[in-house]
Amino acid sequence: MKKGFGFLSVFVAAVLIAILSMNVSSAVSAASAKTGVGLSEHVLKAYKEGWKYRAGGYGQFSGGVRGTDCSGLIKSYLWWTGDSSDPRPSLVSVAGSSGGMLESASAKGKINYSDSSSLPRIHGLILYQPGHVGVYVGNNMAVDNRATGVNIKYEKVFGRDKPKWTMWFKLPQITYPTTGFASFNGQKYYYENGQYVVNTTRTISGVTYTFGASGALTASSGEAIQAAAESSGTTGKTPYITLQADSKGADVEKLQQRLKDLGYYYESVNNYYDYCVSDAVSAFQGAVGINSTGIADPATQAKLFASGAVKNPKPGTVTPGMHSSLVFSMQKRLIALGYMTGDPTIYYGDLTKQAVLAYQKASGLAQTGILDQAALSVLYSDAAVKAPAQPVSSVAEKSLSSEAAVESKSGTIVFSNMIPAVNAAAADRSVQEASGSDGGMIFSVVLLSAFLSGAFMTVKRIRALRKKTAAVLIKK
Questions:
Q1: Pairing relationship of beta strands 107-110 and 65-68 according to DSSP bridges
Q2: Which of 38, 96, 168, 277 has the fewest CB atoms within 10 Å, measured from its CB?
Q3: Contacts of 134 (CB under 8 A, 6+ apart)
Q4: What is the dihedral of CA 247, 250, 256, 259, to 10 degrees?
């Protein structure tokens, strides 16, 4: 009987884990698209944060500082789960060593130090020398985590004395740009035939762009002409199409970049119109005195792309109802100060407002629920007032997770996992939630399997006892 019980427990657990694993793996796959530009931004972030060299490390925290070896720096991007957690190796399968990565390459070539064109102009290429790898981030610069005591470095490729990189290659787990605009490190690049262009001009959709020696966009013309034609009605065909939530493409990317340049948009530039973009458009519409719909119709875009377009009069201000990485950072700080509990999101809902009001009250500030750049600077400083020992309000007893489902301006229910993974804050949040829940899910499955198995065996024993009792009664 014990043998049957054990077998049944294992069987039930295996079935349930298999079912849940299918769901988990599909979610991970959907959220784990990795790009060359993303890898470049990741390793630059690691360099700026001062990650240490640690043999066998892939970005785990130790003493509050992350550590990797050379290949581990690349793995940390593929396995990333968020700013506050360790990377998770189960997310993506990748070769373990520098040599193994080279063997798995989808494309590769030799680097000739007398010919700079031997290194393709592609963000996120992997650079190789025997026993070591790094990441090419464009403009003749690379990042690698080198050795104990040396740690992470940001140096030239051509012009480096030793040791020199001997090969470049593409990892099959990473998607590299082919044609179109790509935004990296706050600047815009244009790819043709798999490489970004340099020292040239391109006319795209009626706009002429100029790209410098580094490949970054240096100037553009045509927006003002288009806007003037649209506003004056001298053109029979509008140069703009209406963009709104879930719109995709180069027009969205161009819109985001313009909003970012004017101080309304705070996220990474991409080609997806999400709620962060909608809020930025609403803020611009409010600044120019038109109806704040969050929809970038032709009239809105004409004003946005016009020369002398209104810049954000209060850039960096966090307000209720806002979706932004600014909200994520603010919530994280409020949690650290004791005004909130739970995990930060990118949405400013009622619980967040209660926490902000509590902080403003404790700090002797006007209780508006709004924090501008100056107020946020104080919040992030050592001068920030911590929450009293006793909760200032009920917010300390609640979790931010209850804000995961909120009602948007249009009345649509918006869940946190609907925010696309194209924005860093949302991506980190969604993956972090997934990684944190796996262990609990597996544990719950084991408990459930034990309960079902126990219930089955109890029923079996009751039936056996009934048969035994019936047999005794028949004998009597």
A1: unpaired
A2: 96
A3: 70, 73, 126, 127, 142, 143, 144, 165
A4: -110
pLDDT bracket for residue 448 (50, 70, 90): low
The pTM of the full predicted model, rounded to 2 decimals, is 0.47
Tokens read off for 12: 């039930």
How far, in Å, CA of 221 to CA of 226, rounded? 10
For residue 370 the two structure tokens come to 């709004």
How far apart are the C-alpha atoms of 172 and 106, rounded to whole Å?
5
CA atoms within 13 A on the CB side of 103: 8
**Angle between helix 70-78 and 36-49 (nearest 10):** 120
Pairing of strands 207-211, 217-221: antiparallel
Dig out the tokens for 299 from the structure.
């009239």
Q: Which residue(s) pair with 138 in the sheet?
A: 141
At position 72, the amino acid (one-letter code) is G
The 3-state DSSP composition of the chain as helix, strand, coil percent (nearest 5) reads 45, 20, 40
Alpha-carbon distance of 50 to 394, in angstroms, equals 38
Among the ranges given (145-159, 365-379, 444-458), the one the predictor scored with the smallest mean pLDDT: 444-458
Q: DSSP states of 261-272 as a string?
A: HTTS--S---SB
Least Cα distance to 395 among 362, 338, 351, 345 occurs for: 351
